[in-house]
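Same chain as my last thread, 336 residues:
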Amino acid sequence: MYFIKIKKFFMDSNTKYMKKHICHKSNNLKDLKTSIVNYEKKVNLIIKNVDPIKKLLETRDDILKRPVAEESEKAFLCRQLIQVTLPHSSPGHTPIWTRRNNNFMLSIKPGYDKGKFLGYPFGSIPRLIIFWITKEALSKKTRNIILGDSLASFMRQLGLNTGGGKRGDSTRLKNQMQRLLRSNISLEYDHDIPGKLRGTSWVDMHVAKKGRYWWDVKTGNKSLTWENKIELDQDFYDAIISYPVPLDIRALNALKSSPMALDLYAWVTWRTFVANKTGDPQTIKWRAFNRQLGSDYNEIGPLRKKCKLMLKRIAVIYPSLKVKDIEGGFQVLPSK
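reply #2:
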């Protein structure tokens, strides 16, 4: 009710404020139009930010009441994709995209459909898909992942809205899903035993070796006699079920509007587990973090500012999280 009142206040007071402050200060019609447009943008931005805040607070209340997620509320992500992450935004037509974490590198090459360049998977949706695929692979213990017979039902499992349109979730899901499933991923490790050995190991893999989906957004194609499914590449399957980090779907749904928030939540969850196990703070420097995240910041200042904002949001739905600022980076402390 509080958030409904906020929206109503801004909508009802919009006209009154413009009459009292904007109209009287505008010298001509052109200035008046510009002032009104600028003010409405500010109001719409405030209203737009109300719902995410509401979602965060509602999720916090739920997690405080039920700290341990139910089985249906659990998600998983392999450690490798926490150490280095997918792109936050489209890398464009570059032939290969990489991220590095010390001696470990992730490389992605985009796939093609009928000879057409598909582009890279980026943003929140591919992350939500991987969370879901990993959970299915772990629970069903198979590379054959059943997507169901309805795009709408699959979207609900990912926590997405079922609306269509050019910028709707269903359109973006189909696009990003094709990009992800048809892409080629390489995991490379540099090995160095000082004074003795130096070498490299790698695995090149597809995400999905095979796939088939015939979705009708509205009806679900209930009359079809086959299921929509994908067959994960064996190497990709082995990678995602090895050392999976458990996550809370409730938190993912509250943070899903930001790929950086999803990456940071997975990272601090993993490092909190390590800190609790070892009793030692887990330290990351901003420059190192910039190399492993899917963002493309040329300077550390903007990255630091954005990360700190996302960490504040994460702390709302992760009450036991303990983070400390240090020179040039931050630490995740034991929560126990």
